[in-house]
Specification:
The chain is of the alpha+beta class. The chain contains six helices and 32 strands.
């Protein structure tokens, strides 16, 4: 008997599972693929699908099953993300005796040359080899008759576990060990109620590399666009004779954690009487009153940090062909295109084969295309425009975005990149630099003017405008005519003056110019920027208001209101001038009075100056009379000014034009 016979200790039978081959694949541009498997499952078998662990979330989210022939799917089983540990363990290269020693107490039937013996395992050990003896594997057995027997396992034909539960555990352990050898695979089993053979179809989504587009644009008398699709089979199954479709568009897609078991934290709750009384330690007295403190607050519950979701980023490599252009293409294209709502599908009409871990480049488009050769200029830092072509998608299909290799007159002309183009739409592509055309730009002028004046509750709002002129100077040194598209930046608030663009994008105006051979011409773009400026009427001078009155865009109602405001402000300014003059005269007289009083005090102490003192006193009295008169005038002027200001403020509060 062999020493390493652990798998032979069971007469176990395992369930047979039938695998379903891949029949259909649909690849999308957002990182998932649709897969369809179908096949016949023989009677007594269950259908089996295998996936990588990182694919299980999408499978569990999207799996759809269909059983034909009258049967029904009763359930789906799959390998757990975290399989339970078995109570049995077997080391590598373990001897049978040592393995049986781990099963002490288990009932076994041992087939010996001399006959069958049954009992419970007491122990098992290995006797190392010596010069006189070979290695022995011995088992001590407590027989059903109550005898202790030492058996040499080399003389045993078989050892059978008689406990069905122990057999099941060992079978499950061996199955889990087999699963460890394929850790990158998880099995999904599809159970059904039918006892006959049945036809099952399973469809699901998997994370897959996006398919990529690569085009060849052959310019000439009959421009031709040829499209190739690059697909990658990163699954563990061959795609043999499948139905393949490619979809252009990006539907909403996301990942959900459905495969990994989820656990939530639950609080511990106990009844009060179930808690043991805790010992209490009393503090030493400090004298005087005894203070008591409240019980300590319970520690806060730990907060479990939520696992961060992994984000996968799909990165597509751009491929371009740098080769000579063939005279004509003999690629056979067998695709049918159709709209799927906002999406577009290219379905290959012939079976496609792509082996696992391989990639393929498949032709999906070859049609004549409407094109127009031209130049594009949109970068002021460059002196030369770009060689370009305007393509109109008259193929009746959506052109998926990708790189384009351009061939012109049988020679390589350059490369371009294009976004997805719907049927009937058109795009500009640039693939080179035209050295035969030079362009310079000049910012010529800027002027401001007021276009509209209005007032609202004490403010004059002037709508002003700024005109800016940009001149493009284009020189064509080639002896052939050209068509130039100038992309002029579109700026917020600016409007074109006297020009209508050929078309408009989200960021630029496009102007089309026909350049003559060996010529130079200028193209002028005028723009106007309109904005509002506010002025407080209360702080405006009559001269400032006169500026608004001279503007021809002022309405008659506005002119009448501003004239009244100007008149009131002028009257207020004149009243204020008279008031300041009166106050200045009064201040000057008061200063003279102080001088006269000082002179009188000085002369009173000198004999013979009575006449002079009398004259000073007379002047002092006259000035006092004048001061009183000026004070009355100032008070009257203040009242007049206040009335004018009240009238102005009242009018400003209601004026609108």
């Amino acid at each position: 008997m062999k020493n390493r016979i652990v798998p032979a200790v069971l007469a176990a039978t395992s369930l047979v599972a039938a695998e379903l081959p891949v029949k259909r694949v649909v690849l999308y541009k957002h990182g998932v693929g649709y897969f369809e498997r179908s096949g016949e499952v023989p009677s007594g078998q269950t259908a089996r699908l295998e996936f990588k662990p990182n694919e299980m979330n999408d499978v569990l989210k999207s799996l759809v099953l269909d059983e034909q022939g009258g049967g029904r799917v009763t359930g789906v089983r799959y390998d757990s993300a975290k399989p339970a540990r078995s109570s049995l363990t077997v080391d590598n290269e373990v001897a049978l005796a040592k393995f049986l020693d781990t099963l002490r107490g288990a009932k076994v039937d041992v087939e010996l040359v001399s006959g069958k013996i049954s009992g419970a395992i007491l122990s098992g050990r290995v006797v190392p080899a010596t010069d006189q003896k070979v290695q022995q594997e011995l088992m001590v057995l407590l027989t059903d008759a109550g005898d202790l027997r030492t058996l040499d396992l080399a003389s045993a034909n078989s050892v059978r576990l008689t406990d069905p539960l122990l057999q099941l555990k060992l079978r499950e352990y061996l199955q889990s060990m087999a699963g460890l050898r394929t850790q990158e695979q998880r099995a999904v089993y599809i159970d059904g109620e039918s006892t006959r053979s049945r036809q099952i179809r399973a469809s699901y989504l998997l994370p897959t590399p996006i398919w990529k587009s690569s085009y060849r644009l052959i310019l000439g008398a009959a421009p031709m666009l040829e499209g190739w699709a690059i697909v990658d089979n990163t699954t563990d199954s061959d795609w043999t004779g499948i139905s393949l479709a490619l979809v252009s568009g990006k539907p909403v897609s996301f990942q959900s954690r459905l495969y990994d078991p989820k656990f939530i934290e639950r609080p511990f709750a106990e009844l009060a009487e179930e808690r043991a009384a805790a010992p209490e330690v009393y503090a030493a007295g400090l004298g005087g009153g005894v203070g008591s403190g409240g019980p300590p607050s319970p520690p806060p519950m730990p907060v479990m940090a939520a696992p961060m979701a992994k984000r996968s980023m799909a990165r597509a490599e751009m491929m371009a062909d740098a080769a000579f252009a063939p005279a004509q293409s003999n690629v056979v294209v067998n695709t049918a295109g159709r709209d799927l709502g906002e999406l577009f599908e290219y379905a290959f009409s012939t079976p496609v084969t792509v082996k696992k871990n391989e990639s393929a480049m498949l032709p999906f488009l070859q049609q004549k295309l409407e094109t127009r050769k031209l130049l594009i200029y949109n970068d002021e830092s460059q002196a030369n425009p770009r060689t370009a072509s305007e393509i109109t998608n008259n193929t009746g299909k959506t052109l998926d975005g990708g790189p384009i290799t351009v061939f012109d007159n049988g020679a390589y002309a350059g490369e371009a990149l294009v976004e997805t183009v719907k049927a009937g739409d058109k795009r500009l592509i640039s693939y080179g630099i035209d050295l035969g055309t030079r362009i310079t730009t000049n910012f010529d002028s800027e002027q401001r003017q007021i276009r509209e004046i209005r007032a609202n509750h004490g403010f004059i709002i002037a709508k002003a405008s700024t005109e800016e002129t940009k001149t493009y100077t284009i020189k064509n040194v080639d002896p052939r005519a050209k068509t130039l598209i100038i992309e002029h930046p579109l700026r917020g608030g600016y409007k074109l003056i006297g020009l209508t663009p050929t078309e408009k994008t989200a960021t630029a105006y496009r102007f089309s110019l026909n350049l003559k051979p060996n010529s130079e011409e200028k193209f002028v773009v005028k723009e106007e920027y309109v904005y509002d400026r506010s002025y407080a009427i209360s702080s405006s001078t009559p001269d400032q208001i006169s500026i608004f009155l001279r503007n021809p865009n002022l309405s008659p109602a506005g002119k009448q209101a501003l004239e009244r405001i100007q008149s009131l402000k002028s009257k207020i300014a004149e009243s204020d001038r008279r008031l300041r003059t009166t106050e200045a005269q009064s201040a000057s007289l008061e200063k003279d009075q102080e001088r006269l009083r000082e002179n009188i005090r000085s002369l009173n102490s000198v004999s013979g100056q009575a006449q002079q003192v009398q004259r000073y006193a007379s002047d002092l009295s006259a000035r006092e009379t004048k001061i009183v008169e000026l004070r009355d005038q100032a008070q009257a002027e203040r009242q007049k000014k206040g009335g004018l200001e009240s009238e102005l403020n009242g009018f400003l509060a209601t004026v609108t034009f």
